Amino acid sequence: xxxxxxxxxxxxxxxxxxxxxxxxxxxxxxxxxxxxxxxxxxxxxxxxxxxxxxxxxxxxxxxxxxxxxxxxxxxxxxxxxxxxxxxxxxxxxxxxxxxxxxxxxxxxxxxxxxxxxxxxx
Length: 121
What we know:
Layout: E1 7-8, E2 11-18, E3 23-30, E4 34-37, E5 40-49, E6 59-67, E7 73-82, E8 96-98, E9 102-104, E10 118-119
């Protein structure tokens, strides 16, 4: 049996939601870029998808820090998340949920070096 081929991609699509009040936001994040979503700083390090002719298994390695009111950050999650199993290795936070939808190679969002190093969705 051949092992599945994973294709690295340049950015990923994430939905995030604020539990109270309920607000759903979709945002695109480039690999290595840090995006601020509420009090969370989210940085994807890798994102893989299988070719379209294979079973879709999309995964991403991310780091999530929580920013305090004083401006300091504390790491609350480091690991792999999976689009087809959002509850597996979920980011456990009282206010925010973030999960992976897809990895893509193109987006309408300009690269970070054309708009600054950090972005807020």
